[in-house]
UniProtKB/TrEMBL annotation:
SUPFAM superfamilies: (Trans)glycosidases (SSF51445)
Keyword Hydrolase: yes
Record-linked PROSITE patterns: GH18_2 (PS51910)
Annotated TM spans: none
Pfam families per UniProt: Glyco_hydro_18
Domain GH18: 1-116
Name of protein: DIAC acetylchitobiase
Keyword Hydrolase in annotation: yes
A GO CC annotation given for this chain: extracellular space
Taxonomic superkingdom: Eukaryota
GO biological process, one term: oligosaccharide catabolic process
GO molecular function per UniProt: chitinase activity
GN (gene name): Ctbs
Keywords, sorted A to Z: Glycosidase, Hydrolase
Lineage of the species this protein comes from: Eukaryota, Metazoa, Chordata, Craniata, Vertebrata
Amino acid sequence: QDHVCSLPKVPFRGAPCSDAAGRQVPYSTIMKQVNGSLSGALWDEVQKAPFYEYKDSVGQFHQVWFDDPHSISLKAAYVKSRGLRGIGMWNGNSLDYSGEAAAEQQTQAMWQALTP
């Protein structure tokens, strides 16, 4: 309700509620799942990041937060505007390198977003 998805309290490095309760999803899976999801792509203005919501086969509610070319470009522009030395992407190997036309375009757009 109201796009709130609580994580179970799984201690990780002293944080009582962390991403240790979740898991990483490859970008290729996200791109295939987002349009058919319960919510479609949503945008969080505070985090400057997209997310979507879905229910799995047993009815469990999930949220998936991710970066896309737009959110990455905002972060890269922020880094540049502050004169910081760089930006990192969490796992570039999670992009889709399958060679499919749509995947190639998405992957290229993600890498291009890193240089504002």
